[in-house]
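Work Package 3 (structural annotation) set out to generate three-dimensional models for the target panel prioritized at the project kickoff. During this period the team completed the workflow that converts sequence records into discrete structure tokens, so that structures can be stored uniformly alongside our sequence database. As a representative example, we reproduce one entry of 174 residues exactly as it appears in the project archive.
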Amino acid sequence: TGTRQGGAQSNVVSDATSALGSGNPSAYRQAFDALAVACSTNPAAKKLLFDTLANHAREDARAAAAYSAPKCGHDALEPLLASLDHDKSRIVRGKVAFALAELGDKRAIPALEKAKTTDIAAAAGLALDQLKQKRHGLASCAIKPATSTPQYATFNRAASDRCLTSSSPPAPPP
């Protein structure tokens, strides 16, 4: 059983490496989701996921890695924060902002506050609202981004109307 598990662990890394080499963005998400699920028991999977997030030449690969990173748990915090601060792609940093919200770690709040003053202000603001709602037990009310808009700023009015509370109303649309 140990050999079979070790083989499966190495397969997830080799499969993800193949997906990255394919240049097929739709293959990235599946590969990174598999890496993220394996990252708690497979250091090579975690390393490949976080190295891709930080260093891959393709923006779509880094964005897919950001999307999957929260599934790795709190180990993803530092790599996500570094990408939010340093990635040159607005798209990647927007994905990272929402990944930080999904992760739900309050240590991301200062970085998201800072990001609200950058070219991803709309995404950072929504992610910050989502994180704060999640931290206050309103995870079912979290605002999900609509990635079809460049600013990731589509406001889900119907969902927010169901979630309004006097202590934490959702932000208005930009």
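The two ends are 54 Å apart (CA to CA).
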